[in-house]
Amino acid sequence: MRLPVAIVLSLMAAGSAHAASGDWRADAKGSDVRRLEQLDEAWDAALSQARAEGHGRELKALGALVDPDVSLARPQPTPGAYRCRTIKLGSPSSGPSYVAYGWFRCRVALTPGGDLILEKTTGSQRQAGNLYPEANRRLVFLGAVAWGTGEGRARYGRDPDRDQVGVLERVGAGQYRLALPWPKQESKLDILELRR
Predict the structure, then answer these.
(1) Where are the domains of the chain?
(2) Whose CB among 14, 102, 118, 162 lies 3.0–4.6 Å from 109's, allowing a Cys bridge?
(3) pTM here?
(4) 14 three-state secondary structure
């Protein structure tokens, strides 16, 4: 069976990402394991600050997306194209405690080696990384963020200031949430929402 050229190129591009070992803890830095272990604290701090600073209405409108207890079965997204947007909650300094960006493009790809890759392909902050099965209701993301339009894909482990760790969960029909606790810039919790 011959695959269409677009699929082959997509798989080749996804295959250039770091090959996952199958165990995210084996591939993650100790500091990122600890960051993910503090996910609940990041949710609490980010939501509390955003509510205290008058963003309760915006949070309520987001529904399940910002409910840390929502995690549906079958968290693995189907490979393909997605609309995605970033929501930043909480601020480690004097910045805004709630920012919701517009929609961009993301994709999920399955490499020939069986790794599941998530990549935000447009925008000035573009995450890319591996998704690891961890529980029946979540996947762990190890990746990095590229800044600006002239940079290529960032890779986990090359620059600690760009490394990201998070949890991908399904929160609705065709709706997923990547929660990134304690990112190095701008917020206490980043959420990347993905929709088919």
Answers:
(1) 5-195
(2) 14
(3) 0.87
(4) helix
